[in-house]
Amino acid sequence: MAAYKEASLHIRQIFARYTSLIEPLSLDEAYLDVTDSPQCNGSATLMAEEIRQAIFDELQLTASAGVAPIKFLAKIASDLNKPNGQYVIPPAQVGAFLQQLPLGKIPGVGKVTAKRLEELGLHTCADVQRYDLAALLKRFGKFGRVLWERSQGIDERQVSSERCVNRSAWSVRWRRISTTGRSAKR
């Protein structure tokens, strides 16, 4: 476990070359807000490519990245091109992306909630966009509002480095790490 923690620390040091706004989620996941970063002429897409390459060059680990202007979409995007890939949702394409997004992809929508939504005929964000907010609140309580907001592309949460616009979400694919060095083994 110490080798994983050491690698995770090294990865966070790579992230810090691009931004101080890093919100770790676990040893192998984090949100980065690179909105004000001057690196790569401010291109979050290019920063993601450079960071992924640095992780591979320095640690021989692959990383997936999602780039989006909204925090929860960055997380979804990071899951779309695994392993060792990157997916970008440009601001101009958020609406079209959400129209087709299955509700089960939204963080917090598990199997039970997905089934309850399906019973109402709600399968995609487009379905929820057309659904009455009051009915969602009655059926799902506070989560009904969260679901409605996410389906509209609303996520006011900011990347918070206390827990340790362009946002990136990261997922590192761990291979078995040798405890005798920094080399990674399959």
**Beta fraction of the residues?**
15-25%
- How many strands in all? 7
Biggest sheet: strands side by side, in what order?
A: 1-2-5-3-4
CATH-level-4 superfamily name of the largest domain: Reverse transcriptase/Diguanylate cyclase domain
Unreliable segments (pLDDT under 50, ≥5 consecutive)? 174-186
Mean pLDDT across all amino acids:
86
The shape is: elongated
Structural class: alpha+beta
Helical content band: 40-55%
Number of domains: 2
Largest sheet: 5 strands, mixed
Order of helices and strands: HEEHEHEHHHHHEEE
CATH class of the largest domain: Alpha Beta
Radius of gyration: 18 Å
CATH topology of the largest domain: Alpha-Beta Plaits
Which secondary structure elements does this structure contain, and how are they paired or packed?
Layout: H1 2-16, E1 22-26, E2 29-33, H2 44-59, E3 62-68, H3 71-80, E4 86-88, H4 94-100, H5 111-119, H6 125-129, H7 133-140, H8 142-152, E5 167-173, E6 176-177, E7 184-185
Parallel strand pairs: 3-4
Antiparallel strand pairs: 1-2, 2-5, 3-5, 6-7
Helix pairs in contact: 1-2, 7-8
Essential attributes:
Alpha-Beta Plaits; 2 domains; EC 2.7.7.7; nucleotidyltransferase; 186 residues; 17% strand; single chain; DNA polymerase, domain 1; five-stranded mixed β-sheet; two-stranded antiparallel sheet; DNA polymerase IV; alpha+beta
Protein described:
With 186 residues, this protein is α+β, with helices and mostly antiparallel strands. It folds into 2 domains: 1-93 and 156-174, 2-Layer Sandwich (Alpha-Beta Plaits); 94-152, DNA polymerase, domain 1 (Orthogonal Bundle), CATH 1.10.150.20. It has 8 helices and 7 strands, in the order H-E-E-H-E-H-E-H-H-H-H-H-E-E-E. It has helices spanning 2-16, 44-59, 71-80, 94-100, 111-119, 125-129, 133-140, 142-152; strands at residues 22-26, 29-33, 62-68, 86-88, 167-173, 176-177, 184-185. The strands form 2 sheets. It has a 5-stranded mixed sheet with strand order 1-2-5-3-4. The protein has a two-stranded antiparallel sheet with strand order 6-7. Helix 1 runs antiparallel to helix 2 (44-59) and helix 7 (133-140) packs across helix 8 (142-152). The two termini are 17 Å apart. The model is unreliable at 174-186 (pLDDT under 50). This is DNA polymerase IV. Residues 1-110 form the UmuC domain.
